[in-house]
Amino acid sequence: MAEHTYHLQRYTGVASRYTCPKCGRKRCFTLYVDENDQPLHESVGKCDHSSSCQYHYTPRQYFLDHPDKASPRDSHIREDTTSLALPPKPLCTIPDEIVERSCRPNVHSHLTAYLSTFIDPLVLEMVVEAYKVGVTRSRDTIFFQIDAYGRCRTGKIMKYNPDTGHRVKDANCPGRIDWVHSAMKRARQLPEDWQLSQCLFGEHLLMQHPNMPVALVESEKTAIICAALVPEALWLATGGKSQLSESRLSVLHGRRVTAFPDIDAYEEWQRKLSSLTGYNITVSNLLEKNASVEDREAQIDIADWLIRWKQGREIPVPIPKSILAVLDRIPADQRDAFLALVSDFDLVPVMGSSMHPP
Q1: Pseudo-torsion of CA 270, 142, 29, 277, nearest 10°?
Q2: In this predicted structure, what is the pLDDT of residue 184?
């Protein structure tokens, strides 16, 4: 007799996520469906909030509870959970209340204090809130890694100079880089066997903005700056040049992605990303084509390029003819930033698609 296979429904947009029957949160519940993508029952599924809600009702449990609902085919059911790319279980996470207590968009860290000198404060506050950027009592910045299912994997704690916006790299400075899970372990707030499993910074925004083009950069700081200056795209960060792994990029299946490596990582990222199959990722050569010798020595990234524009310096990027016709629909103070990227990123202005209001 043929097996009846159920699996967690693949993500195809917000319409494929439902309200959890236990915690009542919207768009966080994944149903079990059969080979024809038909749900078994509205209660049979898994809540994405595994640390707080923990609701997971499987087809096998459902038929044990409701034997009258089982058909002969269902006596041989097989639960296939491999079709949904979920992290290995058990997944260790940071409690939601830690994130909520640390995220205070109206309180400046040393980094956001610097960014506020050239980014509109209201826009900056909205970006900080959207990306769940936290701040410590000593005004260090916390870049929380929250996955596509709303689970906090960890947080990277970094010290910045408030006058320059540069990361503090002095080896004699204690705690210039730390991690939330490490700090909690030291305070015995997490078990010793707690294991780290990282994700992209900003990943939690993918489900909130399923139609936005995605831009991939190295550092979290770069993602924040670019999100504020070019909100037409959803900016995610790997956390470093060497953190570009297929396991971390798996959430980008089905998305149009443009990668903006730092100037010193162009060849490495191009090689790694060209070897992947099943992805729609383009590696931008914007910096590679236009960077000066000084830029290469300084190892600039796309955020440096945009800050240069914001500070009034010229960016020598050609304007495609196809863009000229829509320039009058773009606010004058945003045109230069837009033009700096369109030749490589192919941005298309769509009313209402931006994460932030104009």
Answers
A1: 10
A2: 95
CB contact at 8 A, 159 and 110: yes
Same domain, 177 and 141: yes
230 and 328 inside one domain: yes
Question: Residue 155's domain spans which residues?
Answer: 96-186
* Digit-coded pLDDT (tens) for 264-285: 999 999 999 988 888 899 999 8
- pLDDT tens column, 109-143: 999 999 999 899 999 999 999 999 999 999 999 99
Does residue 351 form part of some domain?
Answer: no
In single-letter form, the type of residue at position 168 comes to V
Sign of CA dihedral 175, 178, 183, 185: negative
Between helices 220-229 and 302-310, what is the axis angle to 10°? 40
Report how far residue 248's alpha carbon sits from residue 200's, in angstroms, rounded to the nearest whole number. Answer: 6
**Of 305, 217, 207, nearest in space to 258 by CA:** 217
What is this structure's pTM?
0.66
In a domain, 234, yes or no: yes
Are 287 and 220 within one domain? yes
Q: 46: which strand partners?
A: 30, 56
